[in-house]
């Protein structure tokens, strides 16, 4: 597909953020060219503070001078503005509701457990790991019967982006805690899905290398424990 | 508008729930007839447990035998399935993103403070009240310049439903704590908006009487403090 060249699309972000990865993947899927403005950790730019005065957080998409905030809201915006195929949300209302439901589950229930695993200790670690694997099993059970390559069918869709953006941190967690979270025995469909997702051309650029992300996570952990 | 008669639309809910009020208002806006299946507090029906096995919470819309969960996802589903006017989401992608942004702000940031005010004590109460009024001022500032009757313009839209469904509990909180949260001096536009919202035909049925809700809230508080 030909690139849509626009000097009017900017994305405020940070490379290690799962939430920033979402609009980056969506823009890649739609072949929209954009300027990536990297924020420095611990130092928010004036543009970020102005563009997201409520939450002061990345990602912020600035399109034609207007800011849009919150990763999944940005992904839906991208799908609606650049509405040519491939579409990110399914066309059927029920399928859309299901994709939104699980994306919301991933954000509100599943990821809050995953992000705490690395910093946890003792029994708390085990309990969090259980919650993470239970969530993955729920997703496996809900989608494995469809026998599709992606949650979105034969191409990456809304829930693929929502969960897939977290695969980097999942691997970092596996690496740092020494545990297998995405397990062939428990979630064979998801293991294959993760492989499909990471191999996709729209994902390869934004998805950070695990080693680089592990280094970043170690630095973050040292900071947190030092404070 | 003629009622859309369908024996295929059921809503599992509970009358005091702000989240259940949302799909009820949306179905009224679309003139869709539905069967309201009231859940008993503290005793979840088999149908609820089957239909929302992940969260086990109301509201659940069951349309043509298929369950849809999570209040704002249900509202979007209703808008997409019964797509005739009036539409609930704005048609412009940027306006849609703004409506979704503030609806998410209301759910994730504002309501968590409001719902804790009644049960709080001392300085904590004052801090929560400050958070609630700050949130209302943010909303006032973001929308008062539009000089419209509703967030959605000249008719009730997505953000109206998201925030408006909480007006009953806002009044209960004002009544039980003896504080004015929606204040003519600080948020004149919102005061008028709340009046417009509650006077709307789609809202009158689902919106509980403040006295009845106060009784319910007192019972809930006694239970919570007793446990």
Automatic annotation (TrEMBL), chains A, B:
Keywords: Cytoplasm, Detoxification, Transferase. Residues 92-220 form the GST C-terminal domain. GO terms for molecular function: glutathione transferase activity. It is found in: Cytoplasm, Cytosol. Residues 7-86 form the GST N-terminal domain. GO terms for biological process: glutathione metabolic process; toxin catabolic process. It is an enzyme of class 2 (transferase). The keyword Zinc does not apply. It catalyses: RX + glutathione = an S-substituted glutathione + a halide anion + H(+). The keyword Transferase applies. Its EC number is 2.5.1.18. Its main location: cytoplasm. Signal peptide: none annotated. It comes from the Eukaryota. Belongs to the GST superfamily. Tau family. Is involved in the conjugation of reduced glutathione to a wide number of exogenous and endogenous hydrophobic electrophiles. This is Glutathione S-transferase. The lineage of its organism: Eukaryota, Viridiplantae, Streptophyta, Embryophyta, Tracheophyta.
């Amino acid at each position: 597909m030909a690139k849509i060249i626009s000097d009017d699309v900017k994305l405020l972000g940070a490379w290690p953020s799962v939430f920033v990865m979402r609009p980056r993947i969506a823009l890649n899927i739609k072949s929209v060219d954009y300027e990536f403005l990297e924020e420095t950790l611990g130092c928010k730019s004036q543009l970020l503070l102005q563009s997201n005065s409520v939450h002061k957080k990345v990602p912020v998409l600035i399109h034609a001078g207007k800011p849009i905030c919150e990763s999944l809201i940005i992904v839906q915006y991208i799908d609606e503005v650049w509405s040519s195929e491939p579409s990110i949300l399914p066309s059927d209302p029920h399928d859309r509701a299901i994709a939104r439901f699980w994306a919301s589950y991933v954000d509100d229930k599943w990821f809050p457990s995953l992000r705490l695993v690395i910093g946890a200790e003792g029994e708390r670690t085990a309990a969090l790991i259980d919650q993470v694997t239970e969530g993955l099993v729920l997703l496996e059970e809900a989608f494995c019967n469809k026998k599709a390559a992606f949650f979105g069918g034969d191409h990456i869709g809304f829930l693929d982006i929502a969960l897939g953006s977290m695969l980097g941190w999942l691997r970092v967690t596996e690496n740092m805690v020494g545990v297998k979270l995405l397990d062939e025995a428990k979630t064979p469909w998801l293991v294959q899905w993760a492989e499909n997702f990471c191999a996709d051309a729209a994902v390869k650029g934004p998805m950070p290398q695990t080693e680089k992300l592990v280094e970043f996570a170690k630095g973050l952990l040292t900071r947190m424990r030092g404070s």
